[in-house]
Amino acid sequence: MAYSRFVLFLALALPCAAQIKLGIVGTDTSHAPAFASVLNDPSNPNHIPGARIVAAYKGGSADLESSASRVDKYAEELKTKYGVEIVPDIATLLTKVDAVLLESVDGRPHLAQFREIAKGGKPVFIDKPLSSTLKDALEIARVAKQNNVKWFSASSLRFGEGVASLKQPGLKGAIAWGPGPTEEHHELELTWYGIHTVEVLYTLMGTGCKQVTMTSSPDSDVVTGLWIDGRLGTIRVNRPYSDFGAAVVTPKTIISKTGKEFYSGYVGLLKEIVKFFQTGVSPIPETETLEMFEFMEAARQSKLKGGAPVAIR
Question: What are phi and psi for residue 304, nearest 5 degrees?
């Protein structure tokens, strides 16, 4: 333990010139210290070199219990365990970093926070959900273009070994499932937790959904999309919780993965984030991210219409 602390002390005291200095906006999620553990601590067996979190702005949502109850705790952990400076506002953060991790657990303030971040012109990773509504997602994309800011947003499941093992040539369709708790402040319900499952579906199917239907019960939602080439892609979100998993339909069989063989943590995502900050090239097309929000909004409209099909293009 003493040796590990000494190694971490050296890493913080002697920053490498090649390291990208990162700033966090939003310390109200477990992702904040989890990311710092991998990026800042060379003794971590999953350590990823090339970037280090150096500053953080707390943020937080007073009306969201899962935010208000954790924002100070995780800020203190970042400060005391990983040497991260806590700053009073986003403007100050931008003077200390090369790139930004927008981590706020609540999707509602993402647009306002992104507007402030965009003033610095620095690349941004926006943790899921990109926003809480389709309207805000489209506005984030517009603001990014206006300010020439490179960005991407993703769930960690997208880059896990489970999803990668299911990507097959010639897929005829796919189904993804996972937890589906909702949050009263998020009108677009799937953005709160179902976004993980939507990301898995789109990682497997790609873009091109033209029609969506949604069927709901107290303990689950089932959303099915019809792609322009005739393929069907479905998500099932279960309440309150369940394992993540997915199955793909190939020309000859059905292949599925679930549980521990499906989800492998944050390392795959963090590798992509560091690569993005190094190269400026997003691993996910903007069009795919925005179509996912069209998919979720169409699902909401379908639910309001009693499960009637809703076109998204």
Answer: -65, -25
At a CB cut-off of 8 Å and minimum separation 6, what does 63 contact? 185
**Percentage of the chain modeled with pLDDT above 90:** 80
Summarize pLDDT for 22-51 with one digit per residue, the tens: 999 999 999 999 999 999 999 999 999 999
Q: What angle do CA 211, 213, 216 make, to 5 degrees?
A: 160
Is the pLDDT at 141 greater than 70, yes or no?
Answer: yes
3-state secondary structure of 125: strand
Burial of residue 232, with CB atoms counted within 10 A of its CB: 0-12 exposed, 13-18 middle, 19 or more buried: middle
Q: Which of 167, 196, 203 is nearest to 179 (CA)?
A: 196
Give CA–CA dist 159/219, Å, rounded.
28
**Does position 106 have pLDDT exceeding 60, yes or no?**
yes
Per-residue pLDDT reduced to its tens digit, 233-285: 999 999 888 999 999 999 889 999 998 888 878 999 999 999 999 999 999 99
The Cα-based distances of 80 to 8, 71, 74, 83, 90 in angstroms read: 12, 15, 10, 6, 21
**Cis before residue 283, ω within 30 degrees of 0?**
no
DSSP class of 189: G
Cα–Cα distance, 62 to 68 (Å, whole number):
5
**CA distance linking residue 62 with residue 28, whole number of Å:** 11
Tokens matching residue 182: 């909702």
Alpha-carbon span 239 to 208, nearest angstrom:
28
